[in-house]
């Protein structure tokens, strides 16, 4: 079949490669270029244990104080609040014990073998050099801070996430960068990994896709054409693009099209930020989630990236200073003697569905179009497996996992 994939982030490129390997003729349509958005700017962690959503019980009680704390990882552009309220009402309705467990089971099935899925996707390509297998660590300033996070670790226990809890002094024997006093307790998550340059990694995968005969078309998708309730063409400034099947993997830009397809998903952009220090004087050995600021410090190729933060402010507003300044303060506090040649600041968009679960599957009963978006904080982690199961669905094979939690039809009007 001829298949169009809209979007050239990690999800779109992964889908295109697996479809190509299944024997299909694939065209990827992208408005700027591969990895031009969140697939470039993420924390670079293959977070197989990311099975706990942001919306846990008690979030509504905690959120106001977090918004007023300049060192908390939650920000809001207040002018955007009126437009945000309907989404927040739905989003916060999922802060229940039952949904946390439902989310954990579903996301564990998608993420548990993330490293192996990336290795399979990148096998025998230059992209494979960017995949490493360090632990993903969580650093707590005090044991009391770790104990206060017992709910999340209990939920990870329930999904079989493997980890070791060590003292900060013991961790310092592995990585002396943080010294023996920065963290009293460190959790080392096993079976995790890292992408040493996410943007370069996805571009290398895209180059491989093209080298194998795939087509990468740079074009702005302006609309879709519908017939009998199903999409039959992508509309661009240069005309209509038609194919046997169309996959939508446009991240936070997917909502408008999804709603036209009748997939009325409650959906928002979560704005994420990073700062990146080039040629730093100090480089950690493994990614570290700094629990006090809920940001990740990740070693990259020649750079040290601090990434994280949640800001609700829509797709159109420019970057805010407060989240970036918070990251600068946190890094300075964590590594006061750190020196570097330059610093780059970045803001991008994460696609956030109301229930935090990505949409993966057919949009209509005939299987003419498919959704592949909404991965929130784990697009890099889950992108290769998402692409693989979509290729199986499109090729009329049954994936070896329960896809019901991700089915776009649950949002059908």
TrEMBL record:
Cellular component, GO, one term: cytoplasm
Domain FAD dependent oxidoreductase: 3-393
UniProt KW rRNA processing keyword: no
Domain of life of the organism encoding this protein: Bacteria
InterPro entries: FAD-dep_OxRdtase, FAD/NAD-bd_sf
Keywords: Oxidoreductase
Gene Ontology MF term list: oxidoreductase activity
Signal sequence bounds: none
PANTHER family referenced in this protein's UniProt entry, alphabetically: GLYCINE OXIDASE, SARCOSINE DEHYDROGENASE-RELATED
Record protein name field: D-amino-acid dehydrogenase
Organism expressing this protein natively: Sulfitobacter guttiformis
UniProt lineage: Bacteria, Pseudomonadati, Pseudomonadota, Alphaproteobacteria, Rhodobacterales
């Amino acid at each position: 079949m001829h298949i169009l994939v809209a979007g050239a982030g990690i999800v779109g490129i992964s889908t295109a490669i697996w479809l190509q390997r299944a024997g299909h003729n694939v065209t990827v349509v992208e408005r700027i270029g591969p990895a031009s958005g969140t697939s470039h700017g993420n924390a670079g962690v293959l977070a197989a244990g990311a099975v706990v959503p942001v919306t846990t019980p008690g979030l509504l009680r905690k959120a106001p104080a977090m918004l007023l704390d300049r060192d908390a990882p939650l920000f809001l552009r207040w002018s955007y609040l009126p437009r945000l309220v309907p989404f927040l009402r739905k989003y916060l309705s999922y802060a229940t014990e039952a949904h946390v467990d439902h989310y954990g089971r579903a996301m564990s099935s998608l993420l548990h073998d993330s490293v192996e899925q990336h290795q399979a996707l990148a096998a025998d390509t230059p992209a494979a050099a960017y995949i490493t297998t360090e632990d993903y660590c969580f650093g707590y300033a005090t044991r009391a801070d770790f104990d206060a996070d017992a709910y999340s670790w209990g939920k990870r226990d329930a999904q079989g996430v493997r980890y070791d809890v060590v003292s900060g002094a013991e961790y310092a024997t592995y990585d002396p960068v943080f010294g023996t006093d920065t963290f009293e307790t460190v959790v080392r998550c096993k079976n995790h990994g890292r992408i040493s340059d996410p943007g370069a990694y996805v571009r290398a995968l895209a180059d491989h896709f093209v080298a194998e005969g795939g087509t990468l078309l740079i074009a702005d998708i302006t609309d879709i054409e519908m017939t009998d309730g199903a999409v039959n063409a992508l509309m661009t400034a240069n005309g209509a693009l038609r194919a046997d099947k169309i996959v939508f993997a446009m991240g936070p830009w997917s909502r408008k099209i999804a709603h036209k397809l009748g997939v009325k998903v409650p959906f928002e952009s979560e704005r994420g930020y990073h700062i990146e220090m080039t040629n730093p004087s100090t480089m950690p050995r493994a990614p570290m989630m700094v629990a006090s600021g809920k940001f990740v410090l990740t070693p990259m190729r020649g750079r040290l990236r601090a990434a994280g933060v949640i800001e609700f402010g829509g797709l159109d507003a420019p970057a805010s200073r407060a989240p970036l300044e918070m990251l600068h303060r946190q890094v300075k506090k964590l590594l006061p003697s750190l020196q570097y040649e330059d610093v780059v600041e970045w803001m991008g968009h994460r696609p956030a569905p109301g229930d935090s679960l990505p949409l993966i599957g057919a949009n209509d009963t005939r299987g003419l179009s498919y959704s592949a978006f909404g991965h929130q904080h784990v697009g890099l982690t889950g992108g290769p497996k998402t692409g693989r199961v979509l290729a199986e669905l499109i090729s009329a094979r049954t994936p070896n996992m329960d896809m019901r939690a991700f089915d776009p039809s649950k949002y059908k009007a």
